[in-house]
Amino acid sequence: MDVIVYLIPISLFLGGIGLGFFFWTLKNRQYDDPDGDANRILTDDWDDHPRP
């Protein structure tokens, strides 16, 4: 039962780090063009990127 005294602050700290990184990705505009990425996967642009 004593270990819970250590686990709760550690989990809150790690959750805060994860939340901080999420806000950092929002600030650096990582999620601006999700439709462009989805369409880029589906296109067949072999002329732009020739096979080796």
UniProtKB/TrEMBL annotation:
Organism this protein belongs to: Acidimangrovimonas pyrenivorans
InterPro entries on file: Cyt_oxidase_maturation_cbb3
Name of the protein: Cbb3-type cytochrome oxidase assembly protein CcoS
Entry annotated with the keyword Transmembrane helix: yes
Keywords from the named record: Membrane, Transmembrane, Transmembrane helix
Pfam families found in the cross-reference section: FixS
Annotated spans, Disordered: 30-52
Sequence intervals crossing the membrane: 6-26
